[in-house]
Amino acid sequence: MRLLVIEDEPDLRSGIARSLRDEGYAVDMAADGEEGLFKAENWTYDVILLDIMLPRVDGWELLRRIRRRGTTPVLMLTARDTVPDRVRGLDGGADDYLTKPFSLEELLARVRALIRRGAGRPSPVIEAGGAVIDLNARSVTRQGERIPLTPREYALVEYLALHRGKVVSRTELYDHLFGDDEDTMSNLLDVHVSNIRKKLGHDFIQTRRGHGYCIE
Ligand code: CA
């Protein structure tokens, strides 16, 4: 899953990004509204974390512009904690709202919920390909045994599981699994797929030649 963090406070921005990356998410960052808008309009994100008080273009205007274009889940982050602000955010098309200071644990839980809902799968447990994928524990088990995956391998399994039964193209996987600061070699995806197959069996991820990958 690829996330965009639009936050002008440097320590907070990098702290949030680090926590999200530790979970295996690909994270892009923007330090002001203009950069945030550019990234939101040019790449595809699974969740956008949006601060309200931002230089150049504020969070309200950004929210309006993001909503004009699409349905990407938006989690608003703000120091303001008044009812009219929360109502304004939600009525403006935000999907959730978190007031600073917040715990990173809660931020991660809200991000997970937005990802599930964005994919149309509100349940945190998915059974696919003979394995159980627990989106909260971020774990994959088979016959009760936990399969050790790297965060990026897990992210790939999670993405395919959330789109279970559908063929996901390589382009879509590259767009959703890697951030804008990552050097993505053209065979990187094959390496991850191959490693996952070693752990979960060759048929766990199916290749559709010329189309992409799929978990049944
Ligand atoms: Ca701010």
How are the elements arranged and paired?
Layout: E1 2-6, H1 10-22, E2 26-30, H2 33-42, E3 47-51, H3 59-69, E4 74-78, H4 83-91, E5 96-99, H5 104-118, E6 125-128, E7 131-134, E8 139-142, E9 145-146, H6 151-162, H7 170-177, H8 188-200, E10 206-208, E11 212-214
Parallel strand pairs: 1-2, 1-3, 3-4, 4-5
Antiparallel strand pairs: 6-7, 7-8, 8-9, 10-11
The structure holds calcium ion (CA).
β-sheet strand percentage = 15-25%
User: Which outline best applies?
Assistant: globular
Rg is: 18 Å
Distance from first to last alpha carbon: 20 Å
Which CATH top level class of the largest domain fits?
Alpha Beta
Strand order of the largest sheet: 2-1-3-4-5
* Attached small molecules: calcium ion
The helix/strand class is alpha/beta
Mean pLDDT: 92
DSSP summary: helix tally:
8
CATH topology of the largest domain: Rossmann fold
Name the CATH superfamily assignment of the largest domain.
Response regulator
Number of domains: 2
As an assembly, this protein is single chain
CATH architecture of the largest domain: 3-Layer(aba) Sandwich
Report the strand count. 11
The percent of residues in helical segments reads 40-55%
Which tags fit this structure?
42% helix, 216 residues, Arc Repressor Mutant, subunit A, alpha/beta, 8 helices, binds calcium ion, four-stranded antiparallel sheet, globular, Rossmann fold
